[in-house]
């Protein structure tokens, strides 16, 4: 059955290439749906017995392909219908290549933050992702700062960048307060057989995006600051990892489905990236336990292993 699925997948890829070259088909919503389905197939069934890195590499290619399709349509083409819904749902994942390359994302431009919502109001998740898409710019400026050789120029750029980070921190705190996270906090410790609603899953996913955004920002702030002691105790990536770890029982329940696995990949991957130097921590042990022993953890662990083998494929193992 697996081999039959791979054959169908290969045929679909060939048809997709032809459709992308056909001006009458390239703007069809079916192209977006097919791209999403193929990325999910690659995530859970695309392991290559010979090339262990191929799975993550192919998945990232699908993500980049989806970005290219949306860019071809332009911001106005993402303002309504299926295109709008899929753009909103996929925007957090589409910023991943920019986080990996540590280069500003085109999705952070004012047009891409405003025009797609000219006909529809933004949700709480949309407002949060508006902050997330700016994070690659922080990483790019951090790299530029490290390359600065003039001491005085470096000090001024360091101060300016830290102030920019504080601005995003204030935005994140304001978002957190407005989101009323206490409504989902109790769901983190559900028993394995407890019923969890789709609303609980969706809200916990949004909260995980918050902790992931904070994780990347706080890690950058610690590197920008002259001394970690000048930052308040709450600016701690480990706290973010702890909250992500607490959410795993929801996403890795045996009846949660592949969709839950797909949306937890980004938070878990970023948490493990940070915890790679904190392997003695409770947070690392908790995440590894759910991946290694959870009913749904196998596919997640398999994909993360593929990403480790392909350093150019995913942000999780960026050395910077």
Jot down its keywords:
320 residues; mainly alpha; globular; disordered C terminus
Q: How large is the count of helical segments? A: 15
| SSE series | HHHHHHHHHHHHHHH
Span of the ends, CA to CA: 41 Å
- Please compute the radius of gyration using only Cα atoms: 20 Å
Assembly state: single chain
Shape: globular
Strand content: under 5%
Mean pLDDT: 83
**Residues in helices, as a percent range:** 55-70%
Low-confidence stretches: 311-320
The count of domains is: 1
Number of strands: 0
Tell me about the largest β-sheet: none
Summing up helix and strand content along with how strands pair, one would put the structural category as mainly alpha
Could you provide a short overview of the structure?
InterPro entries: Osmoadaptation_assoc. The chain has helices at 2-20, 29-45, 54-73, 81-94, 96-101, 110-114, 124-132, 135-147, 151-179, 182-185, 198-224, 237-251, 258-275, 282-293, 297-309. The protein is mainly α and 320 residues long.
């Amino acid at each position: 059955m697996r081999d039959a699925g791979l054959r169908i997948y290969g045929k679909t890829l060939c048809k997709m290439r032809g459709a992308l070259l056909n001006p009458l088909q390239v703007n069809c919503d079916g192209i977006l749906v097919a791209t999403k389905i193929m990325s999910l197939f690659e995530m859970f069934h695309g392991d290559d017995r010979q090339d262990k890195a191929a799975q993550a590499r192919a998945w990232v290619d699908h993500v980049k392909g989806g970005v290219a399709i949306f860019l071809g349509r332009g911001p106005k083409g993402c303002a309504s219908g299926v295109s709008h819904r899929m753009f909103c749902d996929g925007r957090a994942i589409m910023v991943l290549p920019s986080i990996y390359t540590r280069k500003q994302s085109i999705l952070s431009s004012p047009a891409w933050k405003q025009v797609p919502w000219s006909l529809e109001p933004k949700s709480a998740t949309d407002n949060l992702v508006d902050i997330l898409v700016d994070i690659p710019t922080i990483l790019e400026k951090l790299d530029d700062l490290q390359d600065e050789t003039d001491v005085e120029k470096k000090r001024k750029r360091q101060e300016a960048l830290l102030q920019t980070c504080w601005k995003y921190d204030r935005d994140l705190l304001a978002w957190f307060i407005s989101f009323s996270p206490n409504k989902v906090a109790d769901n983190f410790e559900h028993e394995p057989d407890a019923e969890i609603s789709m609303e609980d899953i969706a809200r916990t996913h949004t909260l995980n995006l918050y902790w992931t955004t904070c994780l990347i920002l706080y890690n950058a702030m610690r590197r920008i600051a002259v001394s970690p002691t000048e930052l308040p105790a709450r600016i701690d990536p480990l706290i973010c990892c702890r909250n992500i770890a607490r959410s795993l029982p929801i996403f890795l329940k045996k009846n949660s489905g592949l969709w839950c696995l797909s949306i937890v990949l980004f938070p878990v991957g970023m948490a493990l990236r940070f915890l790679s130097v904190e392997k003695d921590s409770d947070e690392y042990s908790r995440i590894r336990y759910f991946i290694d022993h959870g009913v749904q953890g196998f596919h997640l662990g398999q994909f993360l292993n593929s990403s480790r083998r392909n350093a150019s494929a995913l942000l999780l193992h960026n050395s910077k």
